[in-house]
Amino acid sequence: MIKTTRYLLVLFYCLLAGIPLYAQKTDSVPKKSASDSIKIDFVTKMQRFAKASAKKSSDEFMADKATLAQNRIFEEIKKTMQKARIYLKSGVDTVGTKVQLAEIEKELVIAGDGVLTKKGTAQTFRNLTATSKIIAELYNKMEARKTKLDFHQQELNTFRYRFDSLLSVPALFKFPADSATLSKYLQQIIVVAREIDPVDSSLKQASKNVQTLLNKVNTEAFKLQNGLEEIELYQKDMAENTLNREFDNIWGAVGYYRPFGEILAQAKAKGLLTLLFYVQNNSGKLIILLLLILTSFAYLQSLKNIYVEKKLLENDFEGQLVLKHPLLSAILIVLNLFQFIFFSPPFILSVIFWTIDCICLSILFKNFITRYWINVWLIMVALFIIAAFDNLLLQATRTERWIMLVISILGSVTGVIVIWKGRINELREKWILISIGFMAVLELLATLANMFGRYNLSKTLLISGYLNVVIAILFLWTVRLINEGLFLAFNVYTRQDKKLFYLNFEKVGKKAPPFFYVLLVIGWLILFGRNYAGFEFVSKPLREFFSRERTLGDYTFSINNLMLFITIMAVSVVISKIVSYFASDNHLGVDKDGKDGTRGIGSWLLLVRISILSIGLFLAIAAAGIPMDRITIVLGALGVGIGFGLQTLVNNLVSGLIIAFEKPVNVGDVVDVDGQGGTMKSIGFRSSVIATWEGADVVMPNGDLLNSHLINWSLGGNRKRISIVIGIAYDSNLEKAKQLLNEILNADDRISKSQGPVVQYEQFNNSSIDVRIYFWAKNMKDSFATRSDLIIAITSAFRVNGITIPFPQQDVYLHHPDKDKGEIN
């Protein structure tokens, strides 16, 4: 464009310069006609020149534009090639996918054994349940792998589509007119094509490999889904026909035979597989369970240490069984209470939990209950463990049916003998007899059902009978241990704020709150009901109701998420209150320096509580899945509310944070606020409590506390300077008086010697010479008593040494002039 413009200007100048010469050569022509010819020829030439220049300028502009577009496209192609190469290197793990597919196929064979293959005469409830859990886990793995492969395939197609779209841009096909430039451009296209070709081939091959894997994954997922649907039909049929016969009578002919060793191997393989999958999916919950056990153990151990120090621990642990073995008590309590955080656990995991609980309780029972009831408990535990291991067998055999018959008969006989003998007076928990009687009935029904071919019903009744009595005993003693823990804690932690837990402390320890027994019954029903085929179909709609997503405006939520949010926040509040309650209690006594042992802890309580609540809030928001933009809206609404009417509340809350971080005052400090003296009892979020010298508690908002002229005597080391003014008679020996005062002050141990006392004569008063004594009391709590004792000692010493402390007096002289004159006359 610039060259064309210059050329146009030069040409236009030359044309203008040639006009006079042309006019001189044509003088012979008539003037009028010559002028017209020159004008016509000039206009024509200028028009032709303008058209040619415009066309050339347009062509150059379009060529420059095409060049810019081509360079930009080549740059985009290079960037896309670089990204494609990087993605191909870090793409999906096809080898890992193939290995996982092989593992899933192998595990599907294990899971389908006895249900999808080698079905036998009839299906069993335990086999269907275990197989369903394994196949559901395998299906979830397949779906996760399918999602990754779909995403990878989409990315590969995106790169290929990007190449196709870049290579089909029309600007690439606008070739330069100049042959040299065209040759260079064609060479550039050839180079780009050679670079794209291997990348495009790799993308095609990767896409083909991924598609092959996707086909295999889809096929495997289809097989897994069909298996789940088939199992669901079996389970539904079993739930509807619970009382129907599955096999012949126990003494009848065998319809299908499979070696007992194969049955054991199958049960072992499926049990370990379900346990492995469940532990992998719930490792976080298991870690939380372990942390809860350690926390409970630390608390119970500290409680036991307090009882040992105060010599309150009984030799037989009567009413103190929870302190006998704190670790075992913590394991028993936590496993029994928090096993319900595991939704639909495999039976083998529940058996592990219950076995650990039984071992812990057996050790706690040693030398605590009578020998007879220990033997009864151990027999029940042994029968339960045998029945539990039998319940882990998944496919029915005639051998197992005979074993079940023996176990159920033993249970019935044992239950009848225990009830017949009685010995109720030795029982510490009378409800145990009810569960033992119920066990005897269930085992009798299991015996009859087994004999007459109702295998699934018999097996369910068999494990339910023993599980009923073991779980009942475990839960009853768990309630008892919790009750003892509360009672023992409230005996040594003396600051019993009834608003803290809403418990009647006078009744704790005598009888457990009914609420505990309500929870016990609910937990017992859940654990008992899991053994029945119909339980899944009863609980499934309830689970779906709580887990179903609901929409409110733009926000999607479920009842489970809301309950989780409320639960986490409630637990955070309770934990913060427990920490505040126990940490600030005066059972800690005094330290080696004679100072309050709670003061150092109490000063940090507000920060600890804020931290606990903040962590709880963030965990609750994360667990409930509440989007952060909604939190922003809520904070904005709170900002409006603060602007209109919550200034005072926010001021007090912020002041509480300032007190927590700056610590102008701590719990246990001796303070004076606007003439109101006392000790800081607590520092809360909104307000603080000052225990006055008169015995009343003053609740002061944190904002007022910061804005007042706060005097903190404890910041100076709990010292206080005291002064005493004494008047000495004019005729007294001042040096002797000063010596006596110094001796008295130095003899008192409550007076600081680092900043020694000072005795100064101040002024001549009307009746005496005033002397002022200054001294520092080591502890301000002793200041008034020290001052009183010094006054007594000084008075006594002055009296012995003849130093008078005069009292104010005035002499009056009477003068009578008239009377005096009369006497002279």
UniProtKB/TrEMBL annotation:
Family: Belongs to the MscS (TC 1.A.23) family.
Protein keywords: Cell membrane, Membrane, Signal, Transmembrane, Transmembrane helix
Annotated signal sequence range: 1-23
Entry keyword Transmembrane helix: yes
Organism: Mucilaginibacter pineti
Subcellular location: Cell membrane
Pfam families according to UniProt: MS_channel_2nd, MS_channel_3rd
Protein's UniProt name: Mechanosensitive ion channel
Matching PANTHER family: MECHANOSENSITIVE CHANNEL MSCK, POTASSIUM CHANNEL RELATED
Entries under SUPFAM superfamilies matching the protein: Mechanosensitive channel protein MscS (YggB), C-terminal domain, Mechanosensitive channel protein MscS (YggB), transmembrane region, Sm-like ribonucleoproteins
